[in-house]
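Researcher: Structure for this, please.
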Amino acid sequence: ERIPSPRPKSPPEFNLMFLVALSFAYFAKALSGSYMKSTITQLERRFDIPSYLIGVIDGSFEIGNLLVIAFVSYFGAKLHRPKIIAVGCVLMSIGTFIIALPHFIIGRYEFETSARRIVNSTLNVSPCAVGSSADLTQGGKLPEVPATGCEGESNLSMWIYVLLGNVLRGIGETPVQPLGISYIDDFTTEENAALYVGCVQTISVVGPVFGYLLGSLCAKIYVDIGFVKMETITITPADARWVGAWWLGYLIAGVITLLSAIPFWFLPRSLPMSGPRGPEKCTPEQKSFMKLSKSDAVTTAGTFPEHSCSWAQYFFPTLRTLLGHPVYLTYLCVTIIQLNSLIGMVTYKPKYIEQHFRQSASKANFLMGVINIPAVALGMFSGGLLMKRLKLNIMGAARFAFGTSLIGYVLSLFFFAMSCENAKVAGVTLSYNRISYDKHPVFTACNSDCFCSASDWDPVCGENGITYVSPCLAGCTDSAGSGKNTVFSNCSCVGVAGNFTASTGQCPHKDDCDRMFPYFLALSVITSFIISLGGTPGYMLLIRCIKPQLKSLALGFHTLATRTLAGIPAPIYFGAIIDSTCLKWGQKRCGGIGACRIYNTTSYRIAYLGLTLSLRTISFIICIPGFILLSRQLKKEEENAINKALANGGTELEALRKEEFIISNSDQMSDNSTDRETRL
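Model: Predicted structure, token format:
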């Protein structure tokens, strides 16, 4: 009998080289992906676009991925896998550079300001332009030279380049995971394959940490750093008009991704096989494929036939069988809804921290990278460890995943109580008489003599603790100083006597938020950790609830469905709902509504958290029939196993009886022979 050869063993130095290269590629793609999410508010302000368009840009990565995933999955294993991964990394790098391209095309960033930009200037700037209406434009501003380049800019928005670059990133990312993991599995020993895959996944968790930290660093730097004198900039990183050096991070991420492609060009297509792989070295999935009959949906090799018509003939019945599996279909619906909630929440969480708790974009990104992401990684690892220690079966894994998600859901309800008051902005959140928000006009008696524009956003903080939309609407007639140190005086709306002053920027009003923010962070870390505990058991439920021969198709279809129905739409409709809570929109340089300057924090909190938890509630309701179906499936499998054991037991009993009969007959014949010998 021929002894099957073991799996091929590749040189240790080669394994290490490919492992390091793939880990670096995982790190690069995770870093650039998380950096994209960290620049959401920067892109909104720079391109003057609402949140729902940012959602379209963010979802375009999944669109690019879906465009080529079928092609890569089918042809990738037949071609030179390391070089295909290298091409993917180069495409990701080019896409990242394209995202940064608009910064070098559209010129310098301009924002509304009444403060003097010239240091030590003796020119007196009067925000309140008192005079006859004949000297002013219809909008209430002094005549200005029309902005140049508006004709071309109105026809093609620069954010299109960001969208196309992100699509290209999605296309380039597609081959990295499936081809990289399959290459490791094919050309390493079984005992090392799991270890190598675990190392790669661990590195991929480190990537988002550095991505958000890079976003925090770049958000502190002014967008036009190196091209303007910083002393002439009149806003700070906490201002709603501030735009950080978003493009710098994309250049850094692009270079890192490009470097990750280099090692793959020098790796061989395959390693020499020392012999055919024996059945005892195959996985349960491969063994089940070998046992399939011709009537099953796949061939004995576990692959579909080469001919396209035959491929369709085998594929669609298999897919129909998979989607007809009630437990798998229920699990698919639950995870799609859960991922809608998760993706929407994670995409806009830094923005929620900025707008609701009035933190800078730099601090929000820093906290996401240092606190939230490590908590998620620790939760996923601990979940897998607990599942191993507790030796959970499929029902135990389902209950564990459901329980952790439910606990996280209950804890998330406390976020509703962690509220901050709306910023006190005259004419926006309260009237000039300090009455709470109810569609108050920005024009009143104290600024009636000033010809101001209602569309400008140039906030100043009065001595009375109230923020005014602009120095003009605050009734200020004089100013002193320059840049961030500009002080406006004789502001008629600030005080009755008209002798009160106002400084640039919004009033802090952070006392209540500063007290609540640490509790928000602590609860956020706890809920992230608890929900992540169920990630690994939930994934194992997906693998174990179906037949082994359907596992690969089930995983592939699950990825396709979640990316299509969760990864693409969730950022879009979350952004649209957030836009509905905007109180004051910015104005584009060439006309039209730009990015939101201030939100109704109460409405924002209810919309953001309400949508997140509503989706989770729906998923919990679907889980109820899911548990019933899973229980029935396990009961049926147990009955089949018992019947099979009884059938096997009956066969063995009959064999034992035959053996006893043969032995007894032989003994009897032996006794008869002895009697004959005695007689003789």
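Researcher: Any notable elements?
Model: The chain is about 60% helix and 5% strand. Residues 117-121, 132-146, 272-306 have pLDDT under 50 and may be disordered.
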